Amino acid sequence: MKSKYTPGKPGWLRPGRVGFLCRIFLLSCVIGGLPLYAQTDAVFRSPLGAENRARFNEICAALSGYPVIKGTFEQTKTLSRLNRSLVSRGNFIIARDLGMVWETLKPFPSTLSAGRDYLLQSTPSGVKTRLDAKGNETFLRFADTISAVFSGNSQKLQDNFEVYFTATAKGWILGLIPSERAIRSFAERIILSGDALRDGTVIRTVLLYEKNGDSIYYALSDHRFPDSLSLHERSLFVLR
What we know:
The chain is an alpha+beta fold. The protein has helices at 18-22, 53-63, 137-151, 154-160, 181-184, 231-235; strands at 30-32, 68-79, 84-95, 99-106, 110-114, 118-122, 128-132, 161-167, 171-178, 189-197, 200-209, 215-224.
């Protein structure tokens, strides 16, 4: 069984597909087994407060310290009604000044770049399609949310979510419950976990619960921290 929209075919990225905008990472998948999540909802018993705020701010500051983060991802989309999962794997780039790139390698190759107000999809043949998000509040809030999460923007997270947080010497878990309707339209809860490194921290997993009962789980690995992007990587953000 394949996903309804097949990346790489001309015209698959159209402005009317709001569902696609709300599921920016769902590029291509195949049915597999149910994922085993590393996080639980226990974090939601620990609201952000005086006892954990200093550590929360420290983690956010560490996340914002990398101009570029590169690595690999495995995404598992769980369909609750079918008791099945959709799995895809590839590489990611998070550039603080430009946005994010998700290069899916399996099962179908495709590259998606996400700026603050646009999506840019590239096929293996080099054809690019741009979708502007002007006037689409749902997409704009989604892009803003993802940017805040990966850049560790502590104030923006607190402005847009109920924040929950736990940490140990080796790692941390962050729970987010959206306070805005536009964000709740694509996520009811978000749980992230990360490692505490010698000179910073990285996000290892992201678990997003959708309104319909489905969930999306991301496992991020092989993190690298170059000072800048290559010319090819920068070209992924440009329509030409």
